[in-house]
Amino acid sequence: MFVAASTDCFPQLTLAEALDRLVDLEYTRVEIALREQGCQLKPSAVHANLEQAIRTCRELQRLTPVAYFVEIDAPPPLYFEQFASCCKLAKATKVVVLVMRASELGTPFNQEIERLRELVRIATLESAVVALKTEVGRMTQDPSTAAVLCDTVKGLALTLDPSHFIYGPNKGVSYEPVLQHVCHVHLRDTRPDKLQVRVGQGDVEYGRLINQLRRVRYNRALCVHIVDEQDPNVDHQGEMRKIRLLLESLL
To answer: Which residues contact 236 (CB under 8 A, 6 or more apart)?
Structure first.
């Protein structure tokens, strides 16, 4: 296992600025967020000029890309076309994991299965893996449902975000059912009443989580996902540095 951080930690910064910040904080690996919102790299821009996106993602200032977080707003068929371009970007930059969000609660199960099968089919063509994020308000908020999705869609994996099993309607639920499907991890500290709190003030048991992951032979990223909320009372860079040192001390 190794420590990484997401450019999503700095939503107000450009991609270049976020990368600069991570280098200053002594991170060496990065998850790059591809979102239409904000001022970083967008899936529509990747699709419109793939070669430029590849050049951008190869100039990462000594950071090694380990995953892409992909959130596409376009309707089908453009949705799948943009995703295919993101998969080509991943292959060109030697990245395997593409983190995707599950559909919102209330989406018909069969409809979600069809979407996920198409995403996995497209990703497989570029030797990539779709890693569905466990998340409150989405079909993966319940670990048993998340495991069923992976069992039903061959080749589908998960991004484990344990905070969403501490905070939200399923607080305290065991995420043991999903561990065998995990190929990426998002981390921050969390309390049952608040998704993001200062490191050390929440209920995430990092040592226990790492031991659980070791038992299923997980050997990939522990990706820090502490979003800068622009709170003057919180030293965001200090929190980013603190969790990196904590995780590295446990590995």
So the answer is: 9, 226, 228, 229
C-alpha 235/C-alpha 27 separation (Å) is 17
Whole-number pLDDT of residue 170:
84
- Quote the CA–CA distance of 203 and 148 in Å, as a whole number: 27
Q: What is the pLDDT of residues 41-53, one digit of tens each?
A: 999 999 999 999 9
Domain total for the chain? 1
Which residue range forms the structural domain that includes residue 220? 2-250
CATH code at position 231: 3.20.20.150
Q: Is 170 exposed, middle or buried (0-12, 13-18, 19+ CB in 10 A)?
A: middle
pLDDT at 124: 98
**Are the C-beta atoms of residues 70 and 99 closer than 8 Å to each other?**
yes
Give the tens place of pLDDT for each residue, 93-144.
Answer: 999 999 999 999 999 999 999 999 999 999 999 999 999 999 999 999 999 9
Enter the DSSP assignment of 103.
P
State which amino acid sits at residue 8. D
Tell me the DSSP string of 51-78: HHHHHHHH--TTPEEEEEEEE--PPTTH
Question: Which residue spans within 14-170 are E strands per DSSP?
Answer: 29-35, 64-71, 97-101, 129-133, 157-160
